[in-house]
Amino acid sequence: MNVVDSERIVDLLEGIGYAQVDAAEKADLVLLNTCSVRDKAERKVYGHLGRFKPIKDRRPELIIGVGGCVAQQEGEKMLETVPYLDLVFGTHNIHRLPELVLQAEEKRRGSVTDFLDRETRLNLFPHRSVRDNVTRFVTVMQGCDNFCSYCIVPYVRGREVSRPSGEIKAEIEGLVAQGVREVTLLGQNVNSYGLKEDGELSFAELLNEVNQVAGLERLRFATSHPKDMTDELINCFGRLDKLCKHIHLPVQSGSDRILELMNRGYTAADYLRKVEGLKSVCPEIRLTTDIIVGFPGETEDDFLATLEMVEMVRYADAFTFLYSPRSGTKAAELQDDQSSVLKQERFERLCALQNRIGEEIWQQDLDKVLPVLVEGESKQGDGQLFGRTTWNRIVNFVGEKELIGMTVPVKIVKVFRNSNLGELI
Ligand code: SAH
Ligand code: SF4
User: Fold this and answer.
1) CA of 274 to the centre of ligand 1 (A)
2) Are the beta carbons of 412 and 366 closer than 8 angstroms?
3) Whose CA is nearest to atom 24 of ligand 1?
4) Most buried by CB count within 10 Å: which residue of 108, 110, 191, 323?
5) CA dihedral defined by 249, 255, 260, 262, rounded to 10 degrees?
6) Best residue among 144, 227, 271, 295 to mutate for probing ligand 2, ranked by most atoms within 8 Å of CB
7) pLDDT exceeding 70 applies to what percent of the chain?
8) Nearest to 75, CA basis, from 110, 46, 111
9) Among the four given CATH numbers 2.60.120.620, 3.40.350.10, 3.20.20.70, 2.40.50.140, the one describing domain 369-424
10) What pLDDT is recorded for position 34?
11) 130-176: pLDDT as tens digits
12) Are strands 246-248 and 286-293 parallel, antiparallel or unpaired?
């Protein structure tokens, strides 16, 4: 979502005469697009701002701004805390950025963090610009109404709104006409798409529609909530030829007691039933997940239930997080008597288990020839390209640039921790 917001920011700034450079030292304007989901991300923002201060001391005309979730949360206060900051814009106010920048050019500092009403937000949904990428994100809904007890997102991104399905389909057709081969439908809680809009398609129906777009090769979505994984949506993985065989399905915990305290709206058994459903309609599917360790009051038994979940599902990969209290959320008020040493130790046990399982799964691909959609030149250099398998796994291999945008057979010759090395067949 931040990638999409950053693209929108770049487009708006290009509209007022700015162009991108590759280092803050060379820039007239530096913007930070921020995340406040955990304390560490939030603290980083202040660290980065500190790095820009000496540049501003040397070149006082440099404009510095902050957007995204930390900006939404802190608002005008940030201008007081950071005296060399020029502008602050919230998650609903990206469209106001040109105005704030023009003001800052005249040495007027500003902050806009109002939440907007539904109609205005629907009108402001990003209208996509031209980029020569093979794969693109398409926002289908924004905001979150779930209020998981640990999570700041509903407070900084506001209420859920879904875009009209006709508009989404038209946007994807336009992207395909520009050469895009794969789209990822994006939302904080993508599979609650349409539930709050009268007469709108369900998320599964939307996938059906997008699957029919001629010239589109692959379809993905992120992130889905287990409680909104309907049978209709599960069946899509057995029916839709363009839908990739990967789903990111955050479980958070394997303990029913903790899931309840988290306000997740499902039990471990509910979650496992959905995973079984996915595996039965699509035996090749690979799952990834998010897990929080050290939620307030988590006991050894709760934690063991999470390990058991990881063993049963066999995730290909997992984002594991130490619980970080976010002020204003329900969980921040809960009593927490577990020591940080214990939490860290659990975190490491979980990572060790997941790493073992992940490695076993990715090693199965060794010596196999897999279809790879080629996205561009690899960061590895040496004439290498990179692309992804249906499981969203990066594969680097030597090949001609003309292959970019095509799906080609690649033999996997080496499996690393986060990517594979391949040979074009
Ligand atoms: N909407 C998505 C995820 C949004 S945040 C979903 O519901 O799955 C991404 C991940 O950050 C979450 O899945 C959760 O695992 C983690 N997270 C959110 N708040 C957190 C907190 N306070 N402490 C630690 N991890 C957190
Ligand atoms: Fe946060 Fe829960 Fe919403 Fe995901 S579903 S963004 S974890 S409140």
Assistant:
1) 20
2) yes
3) 323
4) 191
5) -60
6) 144
7) 99
8) 111
9) 2.40.50.140
10) 96
11) 788 999 999 999 999 999 999 999 999 999 999 999 999 999 999 99
12) parallel
- CATH class assigned to 2-112: alpha beta
Q: Which two tokens stand for residue 33?
A: 């697009």
Residue 128 pLDDT > 70:
no
Overall fold of domain 118-363: pyruvate-formate lyase- activating enzyme (3.80.30)
- CB-ligand 1 contact for 221 (6 Å cutoff): no
Digit-coded pLDDT (tens) for 273-329: 999 999 999 999 999 999 999 999 999 999 999 999 999 999 999 999 999 999 999
How does pLDDT run across 345-361, given as a tens digit for each residue?
A: 999 999 999 999 999 99
**Residue 417 is which amino acid?**
R
Strand partners, 404: none
- Per-residue pLDDT, 13: 96
Calpha distance 31→24 (Å, rounded): 9
Q: Is the CB of 319 under 6 A from ligand 2?
A: no
Measured in degrees and rounded to the nearest 5, phi and psi for residue 236 equal -55, -35
* Cα 73 to middle of ligand 2, angstroms: 16
Tell me: cis bond preceding 223? Omega within 30 of 0 counts: yes
Q: Is 253 in the pocket of ligand 1 (CB under 6 A)?
A: no
Q: Are 290 and 254 in contact (CB under 8 A)?
A: no
Residue with CA at minimum distance from ligand 1 atom 8: 250
Residue 198's contacts (CB-CB under 8 Å, 6 or more residues apart) are: none
Residue 331 CA: which ligand 1 atom is closest? Answer: 22
Protein residue whose Cα sits closest to atom 2 of ligand 2: 148
Q: Residue ranges per domain, the chain?
A: 2-112, 118-363, 369-424
